[in-house]
Amino acid sequence: MKILIVDDDPAIRKFLNSILTQDGYTIVSADDGNKVPELLEAHPDITTVITDIIMPEQEGIETIRTIRAQWPNMKIIAISGGGKIGPANYLQLAHAIGADATLKKPFGRTELLAALQSL
To answer: Which of 6, 21, 67, 71 is the most buried (most CB within 10 A)?
Structure first.
């Protein structure tokens, strides 16, 4: 299975990449939601997107909307560590607009793999 990771934090991308490649997933990554359409077009075998919610260029909420509009069957996991209104509010919004699962940062390997298996 091929997964697209979208997070502006290189340490988070590295963490996710490490866990997922150990479990046999193929990873494509981006540091910005603006790159998602181009990457999904270039890699039609991507089945799941893991996206951060709070990013400087294009935030995850807009990224989820874009994915749902163009790839309605794509599986999406939204992740967030917070922000001004707290992670729970952002993750509830992400779920309401189409995320299949949500994870509050920090999370570990077990939670990540469980979220993927639940899709």
So the answer is: 6
- What are the pLDDT digits (tens) for 102-114? 999 999 999 999 9
Query: Can you tell me which residue has the tokens 């979220």?
Result: 115
- CATH number for the domain spanning 81: value is 3.40.50.2300
Among residues 78, 81, 116, the alpha carbon closest in space to that of 95 is found at 78
Domain with 100 in it: 2-118
The letter for the amino acid at 103 is L
- 53 near 80, Cβ under 8 Å? yes
Which residue bears the tokens 């991308």?
13
The DSSP annotation for 41-82 comes to: HH-TTEEEEEEES--SSS-HHHHHHHHHHH-TT-EEEEEE--
